[in-house]
Amino acid sequence: MADNNWTMAGEDAWGERHPFIAQIERRLLPELSIRSEQPHDPIVVYRVPAPWRLLGAGNYAAVLAHPDYPEYVVKVYAPGRPGLREEAEVYRRLGRHPAYSECLYYGDGYLVLRRLNGITLYDCIRKGVPIPRQVIDDIDQALAYAVGKGLRPHDVHGKNVMMRDGRGVVVDVSDFLKPEPCMMWDDLKKAYDRFYLPPLRRIPVPGFVLNVVRKGYRLLKR
C-alpha cells in the first residue's frame, strides 16, 4: 500500500482528477477545522464549509458528506491522531462485503468511503426503534468474516453498527488491527438477550441514561 493516493483495486476512475477528490482537496480541507483535544473523547469540529455536512465525529476523525455526491463520504482524521494507514489496510483486507463499507481512495489525512445509510443501534434504542435478531446475527457473521481475513474486531458497540433495511452493517473498522481482545460486542449481545425484551423495544431510552450506562460499562471493564 502506497503512502498516499492509494486506490482500491478495480476503482481505476478514482484519482486526483475525480470531481469528489477535487471537492475534498480544494474546498473541504482548506476550510475544515477539527481538533483532538482529549485522546479518549471524540474530536471537536469547529468549522465545516458549506455545503458539506458533518455526519459524525469519533475519537480519531470526522465523517462528512457532500450533497452532490450522496453515495460517498469522506473520513478526515484530526491532526496528530493516528490510524489512517491502519484503517486503509483494514478496508483493503475486507474487500467487498455487504455488511461493510469500502475504501475507494486513500489521501493525505483522509479516506473516501462508500456511504452506508441506516440508523445506529444506539439511536434505535434512544428512539424506540425495535432491533430484530437478524441485525445481531448479520453483525456476528460480518465480524467472523473479518476474523477470517486476519483482523481483530475491536470497539464494536451501538454507535459503530447500524440497521439498514432490517439488516446489520458495521460502520467503523478503524480499530480492527489492534492486537488485544475486545469483549464489547459479546457484552452487547448478552445485554440484548437478557434485557432487550420485546415489550420494551418500542420504549425510547433517553440519551443521558445511555450515557450513564456507557460510562458505567467503561468503569466496570477497567
From TrEMBL:
Q: Which domain of life is it from?
A: Bacteria
The reply on keyword Cytoplasm is no
User: A single GO molecular function, which one?
Assistant: protein serine/threonine kinase activity
Which key words tag this protein in UniProt?
A: Kinase, Serine/threonine-protein kinase, Transferase
Is the keyword Nucleotide-binding assigned to this protein? no
Q: Which InterPro entries match?
A: Kinase-like_dom_sf, Meiotic_Drive_Suppr_Kinase
Kindly provide the name given to this protein in its UniProt entry. Answer: Serine/threonine protein kinase
